[in-house]
Amino acid sequence: MLHPLAHSAAAACRRGPVPSRPVPTFRRIAYHRGMSSVIVWAGRAALLAVFAVAFAGAINPRHNAAANVPPPDVVEHVAYGYLLTLFTIVSLPRVSPWWIGGFFLALASGFEVAQVFGLVSGTFQWKDIAANAGGVLAALAPLALGRFRRR
């Protein structure tokens, strides 16, 4: 390929190779102008909900912390969804993180459907799919937030 400023092959040899361009890791997605405010308000609502639950547990003298702990299976699914997505994003910088997240969501759903037919051990559970999705979304959320903050 000729250098953008070269008018002939000889001039291209004198100028050297075409400078490489950095490969974008994130593709631009067109969002509605008000989308960032929706995300900010959704974040505020989630913060308020978590704060309310934490505060209620802190002031209640009969609060049973063990009653609200998720089962180990759910924690495991969240952790695997998060770690697999995060480490794959780091390992494959040229692949869009959104495609990676979609791949792991599809893979987790596929494993759950395979459990229905007895192809893998275990039983189909919606909470496993939701926990996997939570882990994947937890890995992708900082990337999405960073994109909105840069705008």
Protein described:
With 151 residues, the chain is mainly alpha-helical. The protein has 2 domains: 31-69; 70-151, no CATH class. 64% of the residues lie in helices and 0% in strands. It has helices at residues 9-15, 35-59, 72-91, 97-116, 126-150. Helix 3 (72-91) packs across helix 5 (126-150) and helix 4 (97-116) packs antiparallel against helix 5 (126-150). The longest helix is centred in the first third of the chain and has 25 residues, at 35-59.
Q: Give the proportion of residues in helices.
A: 55-70%
Categorize the overall geometry.
Answer: flat
Number of helices: 5
Structural class: mainly alpha
Q: Radius of gyration in whole Å, from Cα? A: 23 Å
Count of DSSP E strands? 0
How are the SSEs placed, and which strands pair?
Layout (H helix, E strand, L loop, with lengths): L8 H7 L19 H25 L12 H20 L5 H20 L9 H25 L1
Helix pairs in contact: 3-4, 3-5, 4-5
Q: How would you summarize what this structure contains?
A:
By secondary structure, the chain is mostly helical. 64% of the residues lie in helices and 0% in strands. The protein has two domains: 31-69; 70-151, no CATH class.
Question: What characteristics describe this protein?
Answer:
151 residues, mainly alpha, 2 domains, 5 helices, flat
